[in-house]
Amino acid sequence: MRTPVDQYVVSRPLYTEDSFTENHEKVERKHKTTLDHVKQYFTCDSKRVKNAALSLVPIVGWMKMYRVKEWLLGDIVSGVSTGLVAILQGLAYSLLASLPAWYGLYAAFFPVIIYFFLGTSRHISVGAFPVLSLMVGAVVTRMVPDGGPTVNITGLEGLSIDDQRAMVSASLTFLIGIFQLGMGLLQVGFVVIYLSDTLVSGFTTAAAVHILISQLKFIFGLSVPGFSGPLAIIYILESIFTQITSTNIHDLVTAIVVMVVVFAVKEINERFKSKLPVPIPIEVIMTIIACGVSYAFNFKDNHGVDVVGLIPDSFETPVAPNIEVFKETAVDAFPMAIVGFAISFAVAKVYAVKHDYVIDGNQELIAFGVSNIFGGAFKSLASSTALSRSAVQESTGGKTQIAGILSAIIVLIVTLAIGFLLEPLPKSVLGAVVIVNLKGMLMQMREVPYLWKKDRLDCIIWIVTFLASIFLGLDLGLAVGLGVELLAVVFRTQFPRCSVLANISGTDIYRDRKDYINIYEPEGVKIFRIPAPIFFANIDFFRGKLLDAVGFNPLRILRKRNKALRKIRKLIKKGELSVTIVSPLTLTHSRLNDEILVFISVPPVDIHSLVLDFSAVSFIDISALKGLKTALKEFIRIDVEIYIVACDPYIIEKLKSCSFFDHEIKTSIFFVTLHDAMLHILDQIVIHFTNTPNDCPICVLTGLQQLP
């Protein structure tokens, strides 16, 4: 039986960086220049062409490994289930965009076809996403308001309000696709990393609140004009409450019944998901029932219920985007492109990790870009993915995007063949379905207490993003949240938690002296840890923290010493002073005429060695390098030895190239590890040991006993 390793002993020389380099030969590596990278990027051979083709059309890769017997049945069941949900959500989310319901169906068809060929995720369901639909709706209602004049745009003259809004939405979707495609081709998929989980959580929770309030007009059966811009949510609530007495009771009761039933069955699906072969499609069931009841009792004519109405039995002809709309919506389209991609990429990552395959962020941008360009040409709503719909596709057995293409076929059949059956569907039912599906996003509010306890800066980012998105609108709210997040990053690096370290007795481990009891601190030695990159914005902070750690200002000490020396030289020159050195810091002198003793002193320096732990320093910029050099020289000039430990070799190379070293600061101050430096320091101390062997600082530091 193998004995576990619970301790180790290492015998090696004590290393400075110089001695380590001398004793251990490094591999000679030729670093590529910018020109080399450019040449490599534009070099073309058959292998690279093949890899590029496979990366641009990922379907070729996963189709070759498709297991027909194992996966096909699951993809079929998943495709049918997802298609039914996509139909309902497409109808519902088109209301968020202030568009006729059938444009949401287009979003569940056209983009899915393109993503089938170009996408790298095998499990996400492409189509309308509520947050993106709401952002599109804000632009649509701003440019084509319900009652006010339309923005003066060439090409929209003579069209109905619905057609104008459809044209604005299509052009905006096309522009979103252009932005996404451009970012994908430029290989900037990394931009999504700047949207942290905290920011996305606060943003999507605020979006859920916006969506909830936007659906109240359908729940209560009221006519509420569209509002956009800052405080739009306040104006919508004001309009709703001023009309609350005009509530259509049939809409309200229908919506409440649908919400209660759908919510209850969804809870059953969640609780018994391991026992149910497929989730109960309760939204579809309630939609069918609601259509039947509405048709039987003629809700539209007899009770004034607003219904979906006419659904065309064919697709509209493709149209070219309106350039005037591009000019008016460019500022809005870019954040929508980022949000749509960020949400879809986050969902795709979840399933990629779960099912052990790789997704490519840049290829995802290309896939969604082309999908939205293609969809925009057919007046589709902007597409991304919805977590609930993707969960249906994955949980019902979907293994690949064959499930996605089958869901698009279901949407095609409904649109072309049986769409008329959905015409009597009350919009209050769609609103109810939307609200119930907001549960997951609204429940993210539970993260706030947890974040407050664990990381208050993250909590502040969440709250600021949430409030800004609520009151300023989703576009400005996202910008504010991103700004606060970047400020938080700056704050964390500009004001990190510096610490003074001490040796954990009997080990070569060093930790914050405040956290441990059994520690050893050699007299006259101070170890200061710098836990962040050093750059222009935090060099002064580090210098201040370093002075706090050592307990004195070396520049002040130096000035005091120089002042004392000038005074002594002046008295000696006049013949009024005889000098006797009592200690390095105190000089006793007597006046020749009256023999009165006068003491000239300077503030004491109680350390002889200062160790800087650079193990967490990832880079130093030029501005900080100058400040660091000045700080080190201030200590060296008052006879404090400086040591820098665990520094990245590339930083040392940068220091050499920037002429950091001179006759005062030498490369010999750099040590490979903190323990190497401490052993070197203690070896330099001249102490006469008269007591027990444990008085020897090296013995204490290494845990050894002196031999008799």
Automatic annotation (TrEMBL):
Question: Could you tell me which Pfam families the record lists for this protein?
Answer: STAS, Sulfate_transp
- Localization of this protein: Membrane
- Annotated membrane-spanning segments are 72-95, 101-118, 125-144, 172-195, 216-237, 249-266, 278-297, 333-353, 365-382, 402-422, 460-491
According to the UniProt entry, its GO molecular function terms are: secondary active sulfate transmembrane transporter activity
Task: Name the domain of life.
Answer: Eukaryota
Gene Ontology CC: one annotated term: membrane
Keywords carried by this UniProt record? Membrane, Transmembrane, Transmembrane helix
* Alphabetized InterPro entries for the sequence: S04_transporter_CS, SLC26A/SulP_dom, SLC26A/SulP_fam, STAS_dom, STAS_dom_sf
Q: Which residues form the STAS domain?
A: 515-681
Membrane topology per the record?
Multi-pass membrane protein
NCBIfam families cross-referenced by the UniProt entry: sulP
Instruction: Identify this protein by name.
Output: Solute carrier family 26 member 3, tandem duplicate 2
- Gene behind the chain: slc26a3.2
